[in-house]
Write a structure and sequence with these properties.
2 helices; eight-stranded antiparallel beta sheet; globular; alpha+beta; single chain
Length: 162
């Protein structure tokens, strides 16, 4: 089913003009979750993963970074959320609602889903590039019944540009 959808998409993109729709390819994302209760351990893990670019939201600051993770900084307060570009994928950090944090590490893989890339404007200037992943939903009673088409299953940060 996804092969036919990709073929139809590519034909429509060619008919509309390539600028009308982003290129789409096959692929899927693997997600590796980690949980943290200690902010210093979270900061150390992010530093070890070494994101090259991204953004963060902390208690007292929101910022985009383009030259590597800026590291722990007590003047910004605790980290609330972040996204970063990794050599082999991306990371996402968010509060877990119970006083801790979840770090999700995303890695692109070959697979049966679909991917495309979009560019969004960043707060304060520049752009953020994301790879979106699309999967066909499965109905509980009939796995072959797909009434809504593919649904976005993930979006990972793949670039930060000025």
């Amino acid at each position: 089913m996804m092969e036919q959808l990709l073929s139809d998409y590519q034909r429509l993109r060619a008919e509309l003009g390539e600028r009308a729709l982003p290129p789409m390819e096959t692929g899927q994302v693997a997600v590796e979750p980690e949980t943290f209760t200690d902010p210093a351990a979270l900061e150390a893990r992010i530093a070890a993963l070494a994101p090259t670019a991204g953004w963060y939201l902390a208690q007292s600051r929101q910022a985009v970074f383009r030259d590597g993770w800026p590291g722990e900084d007590s003047s910004r307060g605790f980290l609330l959320a972040a996204e970063g570009v990794l050599d082999d994928g991306a990371l996402l950090v968010h509060q877990d609602g119970a006083g801790g944090w979840r770090l999700l590490r995303y890695r692109h893989q070959d697979g049966e889903g679909l991917t495309d890339e979009i560019t969004l404007r960043a707060h304060g200037g520049g752009t953020l590039r994301y790879r979106r992943y699309w999967q066909m939903p499965t109905a509980p009673d009939d796995a072959e019944q797909h009434t809504t088409g593919p649904e976005q299953s993930a979006a990972i940060l793949i670039g930060v540009e000025e």
